[in-house]
């Protein structure tokens, strides 16, 4: 890149109000913080009540960011400090692109919930090991030092999002459930009828992903399997059950968290529509467990509430969770500096070393940018035969009670959609990724 504006020459098609907003606001701390709540990867931040020992942020470092009337300790105690930790990226091998070695960092990012309700970054460390070669970057640093530090965090977001939250925790986990459903449940079983629409095209799209993206020399290659293995090793049942995950991360009260608000409504609607009986599903659960071994994941189901929660978790993962991490990729990633897919220079080891020129030399090159923008656009294209959540074109149930429950589910989804659309009218960036009309029944793209 000769200059930053040259990125417009690549990002020159399918511009939307959101892509234009991103291009105009990507440098702002408030927009950076906003994306942890309502971006394409809104499931990372945790409430921080005590700073990690490997992130030695001092009160003096963040005093100017927090304001005169409070302190770091006060804000920790009030629950206004949040942490995004990318330790999972430690030791992940980086790719080679255009014959040049790329680089990966494992940053930590501290964020503050301001009295205005906005979430902003107040400190960034670009490695898990503090020391002279790993400074803590602050908003008070030089403009390009701070922008580069935030860009490294956005790059970490890209890596964890694509390999773990998107590929592993929707596509591949949903495949395990789809196979278990097709192999273990008789076609006449009510759970088979309930779950079959949520398996549509999952196997097909995953074959394409393995063939085109994960093959040797594909767009996503080196390090992805390492990262997915790490993601699998730390996966828990709680993290897949949406209300439990919200509570466990301590983000149940943070304002303007539309991903949480909409997700809880969708989860509740699915849960209320579920049900069934325990018989004939133990083999289904055991088949899933042959593939998945996360902590706390039930290998058998001993009660109706356990079964309903289990079914809700899967239906939510293959529909709403996938929509949340998939549908906004182009909106938020088309302006490449906001969601870079690689970094060509290692993280800075000192402050005051970054300029616009060195920044341009670090972010992805022109051809890499073109490839990833095209990929994100394809992933977000609306399929010609989409079936939104709650749409059942094939009638598997003929009994009156299941039909009544389906109609009630569809009515609740329509109400949720109306509420979301009404709320979005007053937002500068509408959050529509969990609008039921935008959610596919299955992981199909």
From TrEMBL:
<dbReference type="GO" id="GO:0005506">
    <property type="term" value="F:iron ion binding"/>
</dbReference>
<keyword id="KW-0479">Metal-binding</keyword>
<feature type="binding site">
    <location>
        <position position="445"/>
    </location>
    <ligand>
        <name>Fe cation</name>
    </ligand>
</feature>
<keyword id="KW-0408">Iron</keyword>
<feature type="binding site">
    <location>
        <position position="322"/>
    </location>
    <ligand>
        <name>Fe cation</name>
    </ligand>
</feature>
<dbReference type="InterPro" id="IPR000907">
    <property type="entry name" value="LipOase"/>
</dbReference>
<keyword id="KW-0560">Oxidoreductase</keyword>
<keyword id="KW-0223">Dioxygenase</keyword>
<dbReference type="InterPro" id="IPR013819">
    <property type="entry name" value="LipOase_C"/>
</dbReference>
<comment type="similarity">
    <text>Belongs to the lipoxygenase family.</text>
</comment>
<feature type="binding site">
    <location>
        <position position="166"/>
    </location>
    <ligand>
        <name>Fe cation</name>
    </ligand>
</feature>
<dbReference type="GO" id="GO:0016702">
    <property type="term" value="F:oxidoreductase activity, acting on single donors with incorporation of molecular oxygen, incorporation of two atoms of oxygen"/>
</dbReference>
<feature type="binding site">
    <location>
        <position position="171"/>
    </location>
    <ligand>
        <name>Fe cation</name>
    </ligand>
</feature>
<dbReference type="InterPro" id="IPR020834">
    <property type="entry name" value="LipOase_CS"/>
</dbReference>
<feature type="domain" description="Lipoxygenase">
    <location>
        <begin position="1"/>
        <end position="445"/>
    </location>
</feature>
<dbReference type="GO" id="GO:0034440">
    <property type="term" value="P:lipid oxidation"/>
</dbReference>
<dbReference type="Pfam" id="PF00305">
    <property type="entry name" value="Lipoxygenase"/>
</dbReference>
<protein>
    <recommendedName>
        <fullName>Lipoxygenase domain-containing protein</fullName>
    </recommendedName>
</protein>
<dbReference type="InterPro" id="IPR036226">
    <property type="entry name" value="LipOase_C_sf"/>
</dbReference>
<dbReference type="InterPro" id="IPR001885">
    <property type="entry name" value="LipOase_mml"/>
</dbReference>
